[in-house]
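Lecture notes, part 5. Sequence design as translation. It can be helpful to think of inverse folding as translation between two languages: the language of shapes and the language of residues. The source text, in structure tokens, appears below.
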């Protein structure tokens, strides 16, 4: 993806961002060698569940245990995407088995897939052609609550107002 990149600011609970400390952040994966070094350190129990991921503004993938907050994985910074990711070994090579943009802290648009794909390619990981589970986030223009749109029903679950067709979670962007 060339040109202007959309960055996502953290829009979740302020106390979670306030808890991020210097040195927090997921393990940076910018190459196949980075991933190979990281994956051998993971236990079987860790590999059995998804990991938290972000793609930083430097376009590198960062990984952390699932119980980690996305804002901590990102070190409190803006991201190009965020979500959950699972891996599987196939034919002596690692691949992404499932991936979503599920991050209620950043609420990235499904269009952030292009940045995720680029980061996974840089890490030399086989990957699907899109998020295996897409989450559509919208902010209600009336009550300002964040919503997850289900079944293409663009109606606010909090107040019943119509939600916009285009991503609008961060009012400053």
């Amino acid at each position: 993806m060339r040109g202007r990149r959309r960055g996502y600011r953290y829009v979740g609970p302020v106390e979670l961002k306030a808890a991020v400390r210097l040195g927090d952040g997921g393990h940076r994966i910018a190459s196949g060698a980075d991933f190979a070094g990281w994956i051998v350190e993971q236990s079987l129990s860790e590999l059995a569940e998804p990991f938290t991921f972000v793609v930083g503004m430097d376009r590198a993938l960062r990984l952390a245990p699932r119980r980690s907050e996305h804002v901590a994985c990102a070190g409190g910074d803006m991201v190009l995407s965020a979500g959950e990711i699972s891996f599987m070994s196939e034919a002596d090579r690692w691949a992404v088995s499932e991936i979503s943009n599920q991050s209620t802290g950043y609420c990235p648009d499904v269009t952030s897939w292009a940045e995720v794909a680029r980061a996974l390619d840089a890490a030399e990981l086989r990957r699907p052609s899109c998020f295996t589970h897409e989450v559509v986030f919208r902010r209600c223009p009336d009550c300002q609550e964040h919503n997850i749109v289900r079944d293409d029903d663009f109606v606010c679950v909090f107040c019943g107002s119509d939600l916009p067709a285009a991503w609008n979670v961060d009012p400053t962007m």
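The translated text above is only one of many valid answers, since several sequences can fold into similar shapes. The longest strand covers residues 79-90.
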